[in-house]
Amino acid sequence: MVKRKTKFTCQACGYESPKWMGKCPGCGAWNTLTEELEPSKSSRKLTFTASMNEGNAKPVKLKEVETIQEPRIKTDNNEFNRVLGGGIVRGSLVLIGGDPGIGKSTLLLQISSYLSSKDQGVLYISGEESVKQTKLRADRLSVSSDALYVLAETDLEFITKAIEEISPSFVVIDSIQTIYHPEVQSAPGSVSQVRECTAELMRLAKSKGIAIFIVGHVTKEGNIAGPRLLEHMVDSVLYFEGERHHSYRILRAVKNRFGSTNEMGIFEMKEEGLEEVHNPSEIFLEERSKGASGSTVVASMEGTRPVLVEIQALVSPTSFGNPRRMATGLDVNRVSLLMAVLEKRVGLLLQNQDAYLKVAGGVKLDEPAIDLAVAVSIASSFRDQVSSATDVLIGEVGLTGEVRRVSRIEQRVQEAAKLGFKRVIIPKKNMGNWSVPAGIEVVGVDHVGEALKVTLGG
Q: Of the N and C termini of the chain, which has fewer Cβ atoms inside 10 Å?
């Protein structure tokens, strides 16, 4: 018997070492190197045989390549279609990640039900549940169709045979960490297994034109478990987010070869399953308290959709040597920068004040256009002055206190007018060259101090 060699592979970044180390030199993570058998000569070729084209491919001129514009597969869920860029692309491999119990399997089972009802063959492969358990969940969601097949299997070879026999248009793998390739001598969920299984699924998707969705578990930090190479291999990466204490879920695209990566879909988890939210601005503002200081409303762009969100701030004297800066849904470094601008350019003494900021509804905002609303909410709480409940603030704040122009101002103002707001404070550079909706006043400002005078009266 020939002795098989072993290696130690980091489960976070894929770094390989001939000996065990407590700290990975590649990513700096501790206790992530696990022992694996070196692949045999036959299994070493697995990754390279997972090509997108069957047989020997030859180089061709780009201008001679003929393309056929195939329509996307649209579902009955407009939010899901929006995040994917208009629908499901045939032959695509999509990865969906999220916390346990957030609703990934529920969403994909509902999408599978709709597609199968439209004469689209669907194969739902569960590596974590038996067929009877999947049936119980389907009954709860009222999912039933003659074209929906269910398979409880973790061996990739059996999964490949089932796909070739049924020839479905849509395949769900739940989850990729439970699938294993029998020729790879390592445990399911390891770097080698995830890489080889994903490469084989990619070959199937591209060669047969099947849209495959794979579910990926996430780590404590919120990243998809396993190395980042999994995200590089697939066509699209979707993250399903949400707080356990809220019924709303947010689906984001962080990578999409067939559409925008800025789109956001909002769902509400109910007993019958996930339902799409058609007007998220009303949801985020329905519990807003009027007459409270530190509250402002901003029109943020999530892809092509404007969303109105409430920003809350609480500023109070500190009892520590260093004041605290905490933010939920905002970048805490951005908050510290805006507080420094208010102190230097406006004269607010904030160096001895604790500041706590939050975006209501569990949404995360990261675009520069929210700066003005954050700055006004901080000043409102510090001065204990209430801003008007019918005001919306839009604008980027520079280090010298200037309010800079933002993109798609007309769409933002139209969303504010649709929800009944009476006044919008925007950068003066954005004034003109577009029509103002009826029933709303638009005020242009050049400096953050000018915005405070307009909203707080001083």
A: N
